[in-house]
């Protein structure tokens, strides 16, 4: 997968083999919903982007679990950092991937991505300063935290006594159970005028009409939740899952993609982001997916937390 939908490091780890995780559960769990498991499925028999491994549909059995209603916000992540002293990988690397149009000062761009000029590397871009120096999080503490890698997300999950959801759990929650639907809200297609979530409206990447009210991220509880009660499972920010990325196909293209994914230890992300549009990155569908290396981070990548169900309890963790 190229960096078309989210920034990717796509380079050796430069001596950073992972982020030390605080394994002591000390954080406060977020509001979560109990999800009934059982026989269900993951993927689709009607893939739109076959190269991503959206199909075939696969039957699977899930245990009951809980999933937080929203992505982890900047406010919660700040509490985690204040308590544990965690340093994110973007901070360690000294830069992160930023959607170039978010920059108020184009001189901050320090390196582009071949084939995707809308992505640029920005020195100093982190969860604290999402667009680099002079940017602030003061007015968006209720927005999803961004510029966090899979390793950072895993460290936070351990801190609250949770974990990252599997791809199957994420899809099961987004569909509201064992039923087929293209989007968390049903089958109706979002358009530049019909708004269900925070995605791009207009002509990407030149014109965003802002019909949904947001150019970048929206608050984690924006728009109507799906029937199960989960917010923003389509659009806003990509969400890390626990699973390694793999394309289930015998084609030469799939084999090459899998070799690449194995080399970089790519992980699955779900849900699409505020940059998605049907004409460009039609990945805000439930079955859509993307793979990135676990040290990658960008201005449109976040996460939410899952928990194992506790025997005898079904009212949330």
Automatic annotation (TrEMBL):
InterPro entries: CTDL_fold, Sulfatase_Mod_Factor_Kinase, SUMF_dom, SUMF_sf
Oxidoreductase as UniProt keyword: no
Domain of life: Bacteria
Range of residues in the leader sequence: none
Domain Sulfatase-modifying factor enzyme-like: from-to ranges: 31-306
Xref: SUPFAM superfamilies: C-type lectin-like
Keyword annotations: Plasmid
GO molecular-function terms, A-Z: formylglycine-generating oxidase activity
Region (Disordered) location: 1-22
Coiled coil regions in record: none
A family per Pfam: FGE-sulfatase
PANTHER family (UniProt xref): FORMYLGLYCINE-GENERATING ENZYME, SULFATASE MODIFYING FACTOR 1, 2
Protein name: Sulfatase-modifying factor 1
Organism of derivation: Neorhizobium galegae bv. orientalis str. HAMBI 540
């Amino acid at each position: 997968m190229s960096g078309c939908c989210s920034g990717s490091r796509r380079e050796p780890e430069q001596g950073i083999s992972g982020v030390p995780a605080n394994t002591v559960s000390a954080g406060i769990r977020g509001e979560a919903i109990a999800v009934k498991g059982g026989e269900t499925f993951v993927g689709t028999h009607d893939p739109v982007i076959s190269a991503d491994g959206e199909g075939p549909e696969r039957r699977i059995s899930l245990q009951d679990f809980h999933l937080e209603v929203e992505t982890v916000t900047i406010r919660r992540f700040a509490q985690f950092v204040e308590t544990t002293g965690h340093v994110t990988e973007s901070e360690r690397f000294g830069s992160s991937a930023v959607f170039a149009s978010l920059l108020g000062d184009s001189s901050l761009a320090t390196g582009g991505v071949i084939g995707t000029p809308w992505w640029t590397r920005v020195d100093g871009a982190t969860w604290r300063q999402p667009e680099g120096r002079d940017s602030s999080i003061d007015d968006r503490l209720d927005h999803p935290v961004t510029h966090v890698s899979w390793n950072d997300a895993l460290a936070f999950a351990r801190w609250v006594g949770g974990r990252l959801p599997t791809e199957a759990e994420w899809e099961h929650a987004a569909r509201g159970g064992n039923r087929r639907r293209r989007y968390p809200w049903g089958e109706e297609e979002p358009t530049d005028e019909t708004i269900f979530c925070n995605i791009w409206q207009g002509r990407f990447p030149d014109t965003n009409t802002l019909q949904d009210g947001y150019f970048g991220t929206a608050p984690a509880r924006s728009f109507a939740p799906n029937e199960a009660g989960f917010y923003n499972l389509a659009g806003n920010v990509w969400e890390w899952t626990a699973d390694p990325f793999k394309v289930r196909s015998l084609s030469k293209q799939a084999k090459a993609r899998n070799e690449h994914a194995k080399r970089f230890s790519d992980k699955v992300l779900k849900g699409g982001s505020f940059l998605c549009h049907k004409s460009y990155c039609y990945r805000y569908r439930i079955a859509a997916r993307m793979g990135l290396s676990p040290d990658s981070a960008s201005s449109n990548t976040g996460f939410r937390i899952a928990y194992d169900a506790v025997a005898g309890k079904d009212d949330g963790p």
